[in-house]
Amino acid sequence: MHALLQTNAVPSFVNAYVEVLADSIGFDVETLSYTLGMFLCYPLGMIMACLPYGKVRHFFSFVLGAFLLQFTLGKQWMHHVVAVVISYVIMLILPAKWAKTAVPTFIMIRSHMILAMKLYSLAYNVYDGDLIKNGKETRATKKCAHLAVDGVPGFIEFLGYTFNFSTILAGPSFEYKIYADACDGKNFYDEEGKPKGKIPSQVMPTLKPFLLSLMCMGAFVVGTGKFPLLDPTDPQNFTPVVITAEFLKKPWVYRFAYSWVALFFIRMKYYFAWKNAEGASNIWFAGFEGFDEDGNPKGWENSNNVDMFEFETASNVKTLSTVWNKKTANWLGRYVYMRTGGSLVATYGLSALWHGFYPGYYMFFLTIPLLTACERLGRKKLSPKFSSSKRSLYGIVTIIATSLIVVYNVLAFQLLAFDWALAAWKSHYFFGHILCAVFYGVVSQMPTPKKRRLRLLLKRV
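Above: the chain's sequence. Below: its structure in token form.
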């Protein structure tokens, strides 16, 4: 193990070249290495698509994933190896009902985000498989039965999944069964080796997200340069632009509009990463969903981690959570929300812990249950009285309201530090929290539409 951790597959001249390139274009080495690593996944994906199904693909996935980690993280990649090996030993030694608790506890303490999701979900996949085998399915197990695994995977398969090169840097975090089916060819062939349908071309599913990612990267670089949220000279130490004394002298409408634009361009960074990873996964069919009973292709949703237009025009928090970082939302829903009796506090609390220990994360995520409570109340008391169309007056109002409240809340997530996040909320007079409290207090006193009235209104819509 020590020899493995000391191995460096990245030649020294490559690191030297990256440092020179970073200096010439004004990027820091870490950001440039990360970006180059993501683009490198495309030629690697082309090679992966040509390899025979089975252990060869799993091994290739592991080796290239380890290379990318060393290229982007340097010696820190060893933490990934340690977490993977210890988690595998835990799942082998402990009974499934204990491993599904021990593995998440361990990985949430010492692992990075994508790995944490993979190991967390796999521990539950094995646990669900054990419950199904013994006829002790729970309600959550039945809903996740299609993802259950019959026993701990082999070590090569396990390494291939946790180090998978096309998802190691930015996700999306596939479920193990989705990854294994792509590597073993089960999406295309049945157990007898017969084709399930005509294999579709991966050119457009690869090219479209790739080109979109390039556009998003350009928008991020240009937009954040003109509308910085943090101080560009020293973002970690200097006061963020949006809470400086000079900025706070400007009218509130200007300040809020500036924050909206700045956050819009910051989102381009996430769009770039997820769309780039989507194309890199589709090139070797990892994003392909397989065929339906009639032999028709289902689609490529396995690798789609964000619906950009739906997010930008969302009319409620539920839609936002569904279309943003979709695989993380699925993970939280399947293995936290459903396993804790629908606890929003547990779900968003774990999401904050998964992101890190900055106070801004907790301020953001622990505010979401308040927003969700208001949304559910509005859906119960108000929505039945109006048209559900986004083009209606009510639909436009909800889109604007959602956008305003999200900008207010996300400031805490982006500013991270408690005093900075609190100052940002204060600069906007805490309107997000105040309006939610007033909305809940007023709307909760309104009568709930009767079922007959509901049916008539729905027919009119």
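Residues 1-6 have pLDDT under 50 and may be disordered.
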